[in-house]
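#struct-help
A.M.: can someone run this one for me? Single chain, 152 residues.
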Amino acid sequence: MSSGISIVADLLVATLLVATISTSLVLSRRIRRLKADESTMRKTIGELVVATETAERAIAGLRTTLGECDRTLAERLKAAERYSVDLAEQVGAGEEVMSRIARIVEATRLVEPVKAAAPEPVSTAAMKLKAAAARAEALAERAVRRLESEAA
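D.P.: on it. Structure tokens below:
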């Protein structure tokens, strides 16, 4: 009986030994695949590191460019505001000049009927005044036409 038990024990040990060997072979193959995958992973990680560094440099460059654009835009906005204020002042001054010219023209139109009623000798000062009034009237008409064309 002891020989039967010893044969069964030997068969059990042999079976376990075969199972261990087959498991070792499977694990050996997996380890080889992992090592092959490890070198691939190392290459991939290296490429990722390089790509990350490149992206960080690009982001730093973009931040610098964005800062410059922001400063340039702020300067241009300030300049535009100054030009807008200057333009508004000039338009106001132009409107004041136009109202003065209109008053001069109206005054000239009022003076001419009075002169027609009472003819007086024409002096040099009166001729100059008439010429100035005519020029002012022509200037006013041109300004009115310009304003009408700009409004259209």
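A.M.: thanks! The chain has one domain: 2-151.
D.P.: also worth noting: The two ends are 124 Å apart (CA to CA).
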